[in-house]
Amino acid sequence: NHRPIHVPITHGIEARFNNKNMSKKIDKKIPYKSLVMKLMWLARSYRFHLLYAVNFFARFMDCYTPELYAELLKLVVYVRDTRDWKLIWKIDPNEKVVIHTCCDSDWGTYDGYSTGGFFTFLNGCLIAGSCQSIKVICTSSTQAEMYAVFESCRTSMYVTKLQQAFGFPCFPCVVRGDNDGSIKDAKQWRNSGNNKHWNIKFRYCTELYEN
Questions:
Q1: Which residues contact 66 (CB under 8 A, 6 or more apart)?
Q2: Which pLDDT does position 1 carry in this prediction?
Q3: How many C-beta neighbours within 10 Å does residue 68 have?
Q4: For all residues of the chain together, what is the average pLDDT?
Q5: How many Cα atoms sit within 13 Å of 161 on the Cβ side?
Q6: How is residue 35 annotated by DSSP?
Q7: Does the pLDDT at position 193 exceed 90?
C-alpha cells in the first residue's frame, strides 16, 4: 500500500549513508542481502536503469540498517509499479547494423570511490548496460571516465562479434562520452604526467580506435 515511487533511488541518499563508518552489527532477520541479490539479477538481466540503485545498496551488505532497508523497499515499490516495462529489440535484415554506446562516470562520491557505467544500443534498441564501483581511487575525473570508456569498448566489441556470428555485418561502433580528456587519451598512445599511472588496459581503447 506504499505510495507510488517515481525514481529508483532517493535523491541525495549517498550523503546519508556511508559504509565506512557504519556498524557491522546487523539484524540478520532483515532479508536485506537476499533482496539486493534478487534486484541485482533483475537489473543485470534487462532492467538496466536500476543498476546504479542496486549497486549503491550492494555496498552495505555487511552494515545495513533498518533505515537503509526502508530505502531498499522503495526500490521494490518502484519495480512493482514499472513491472510492465519491456526491452524491445527490433532487427530488420535489410537495415545496416549500427552499435553505439553511451558512457559516463562520476568522480569520487562520498566514500571516495567513483562509479562508472554505460548503455549499449543496437539500431536504437537498448541491449546492454552496466554500472559498477571503480575499485581504485581515481585521481581525476578523466581517469574515472576512462574506466567507463574501457568497459564501453569491451562490451561494444562483444556485441559486434556476436552480431557477426549471426551473419550481420557491423559498421564501426560509436562510443559516446562527455569528457574531453578521456576522449583525447583514448585516441593516442602518448603518456603524460597526468595519466602515466593509469592502467595499461586503457590502451585497448586506443588500439580499437586505430583499427
A1: 27, 30
A2: 59
A3: 21
A4: 88
A5: 5
A6: H
A7: no
- Strand arrangement, sheet containing 174-176: 125-133, 115-122, 99-105, 174-176
**22, 65 contact by CB (below 8 A):** yes
pLDDT of residue 200: 80
Task: List, in order, residues 6 or more apart from 40 with CB less than 8 Å away.
Answer: 54, 58
Q: What are 54-79's pLDDT values in tens digits?
A: 999 999 999 999 999 999 999 999 99
Closest by alpha carbon to 148, among 184, 192, 179?
Answer: 179
Cα separation of 153 and 175, whole Å? 7
Cβ contacts of residue 135 below 8 Å, gap of 6+?
113
Angle at alpha carbon of residue 193, lines to 191 and 194, rounded to 5°? 90
Strands (E) across the chain are located at: 99-105, 115-122, 125-133, 174-176
Q: What pLDDT sits at residue 2?
A: 66
CB atoms within 10 A of CB 27: 10
Between strands 125-133 and 115-122, the pairing is antiparallel
What pLDDT, in 10s, does the model give residues 117-134? Answer: 999 998 888 989 998 888
- pLDDT at residue number 154: 92
